[in-house]
């Protein structure tokens, strides 16, 4: 039997499916999930087993390997991506190892592999779904097989216009269903990667189907998924303001035009002021 407190924590997370056990036959120990593994915080438990299910025997191995997935999880490519990865890199400290179910792996892989390809990486062999147990075994299953998620993939990079008129900007607004003003910063992480963050609140010029409480997150995910486009946009580490224009298609953001908003750009300011009373042809 699983200890009651640990069993309760996992039951609350909604992922544990009970049938028969599975153990990799290694001598293991329980350790606290370190602060450096931010991806695996607030997942329903605070201790993990070492070695883990990826074969890592020390935190010196686990921390940098798990950190490689941090931005990937933030793309929102699948609602269970974080649970899937943490079950492997930071498995819950129960009496036996609990693998993710094969069905969870397939679901996460099918949704998230296109995002990996956006960054020039195939789905890794180490996460081959055939290595995981079928749903009839004891494993982590998705909350609901009927859960509908929106698959995300990278897009052709939008144009970043440097020279334009207010008429041209208004015409672009007319053929797109949202326009938002964001302040974007860029910094280098401890692993040497670029990290992009939206500072302050998103300002709506044209709201369209975007929701105020979700827009910042959607734009942030777009920046992460389309990192090659984001790199072209942000040519300096100094925070910059951008006007991002696009459409919502099948529940996901498609950015079609980007303007760098600088104080001297009176054409942008005039266009956004006139938009409220502008009539599209």
UniProtKB/TrEMBL annotation:
<protein>
    <recommendedName>
        <fullName>Secreted frizzled-related protein 2</fullName>
    </recommendedName>
</protein>
<dbReference type="InterPro" id="IPR015526">
    <property type="entry name" value="Frizzled/SFRP"/>
</dbReference>
<keyword id="KW-0221">Differentiation</keyword>
<dbReference type="InterPro" id="IPR020067">
    <property type="entry name" value="Frizzled_dom"/>
</dbReference>
<feature type="domain" description="FZ">
    <location>
        <begin position="25"/>
        <end position="142"/>
    </location>
</feature>
<keyword id="KW-0879">Wnt signaling pathway</keyword>
<keyword id="KW-0732">Signal</keyword>
<feature type="disulfide bond">
    <location>
        <begin position="105"/>
        <end position="129"/>
    </location>
</feature>
<dbReference type="GO" id="GO:0060070">
    <property type="term" value="P:canonical Wnt signaling pathway"/>
</dbReference>
<keyword id="KW-0964">Secreted</keyword>
<feature type="signal peptide">
    <location>
        <begin position="1"/>
        <end position="21"/>
    </location>
</feature>
<dbReference type="InterPro" id="IPR001134">
    <property type="entry name" value="Netrin_domain"/>
</dbReference>
<keyword id="KW-1015">Disulfide bond</keyword>
<dbReference type="GO" id="GO:0005615">
    <property type="term" value="C:extracellular space"/>
</dbReference>
<dbReference type="InterPro" id="IPR036790">
    <property type="entry name" value="Frizzled_dom_sf"/>
</dbReference>
<dbReference type="GO" id="GO:0030154">
    <property type="term" value="P:cell differentiation"/>
</dbReference>
<dbReference type="Pfam" id="PF01392">
    <property type="entry name" value="Fz"/>
</dbReference>
<feature type="disulfide bond">
    <location>
        <begin position="40"/>
        <end position="86"/>
    </location>
</feature>
<dbReference type="GO" id="GO:0017147">
    <property type="term" value="F:Wnt-protein binding"/>
</dbReference>
<dbReference type="GO" id="GO:0035567">
    <property type="term" value="P:non-canonical Wnt signaling pathway"/>
</dbReference>
<keyword id="KW-0217">Developmental protein</keyword>
<comment type="similarity">
    <text>Belongs to the secreted frizzled-related protein (sFRP) family.</text>
</comment>
<feature type="domain" description="NTR">
    <location>
        <begin position="154"/>
        <end position="280"/>
    </location>
</feature>
């Amino acid at each position: 039997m699983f200890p009651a407190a640990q069993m309760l924590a996992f039951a609350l997370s909604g992922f544990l499916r009970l049938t028969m056990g599975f153990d990799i036959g290694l001598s293991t120990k329980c350790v606290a999930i370190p602060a450096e593994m931010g991806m695996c915080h607030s997942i329903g438990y605070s201790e993990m087993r070492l070695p883990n299910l990826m074969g890592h025997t020390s935190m010196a191995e686990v921390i940098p390997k798990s950190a490689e997935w941090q931005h990937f999880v933030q793309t929102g490519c699948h609602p269970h991506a974080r649970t899937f990865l943490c079950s492997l890199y930071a498995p819950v400290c129960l009496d036996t190892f609990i693998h993710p179910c094969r069905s969870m792996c397939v679901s996460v892989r099918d949704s998230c592999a296109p995002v990996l390809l956006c960054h020039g990486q195939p789905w890794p062999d180490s996460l081959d779904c055939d290595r995981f147990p079928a749903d009839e075994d004891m494993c982590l299953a998705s909350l609901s097989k009927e859960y509908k998620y929106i698959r995300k993939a990278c897009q052709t990079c939008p144009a970043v216009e440097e020279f334009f008129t207010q008429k041209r900007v208004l015409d672009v607004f007319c053929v797109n269903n949202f326009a938002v003003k964001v302040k974007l910063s860029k910094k280098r992480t401890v692993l040497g990667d670029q990290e992009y963050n939206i500072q302050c609140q998103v300002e709506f010029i044209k709201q369209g189907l975007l929701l105020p409480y979700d827009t910042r997150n959607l734009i942030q995910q777009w920046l992460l998924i389309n990192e090659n486009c984001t790199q072209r946009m942000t040519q300096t580490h100094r925070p910059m303001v951008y006007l991002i224009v696009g459409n919502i298609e099948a529940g996901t953001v498609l950015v079609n035009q980007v303007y760098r908003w600088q104080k001297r750009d009176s054409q942008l300011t005039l266009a956004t002021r006139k938009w409220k009373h502008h009539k599209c042809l």
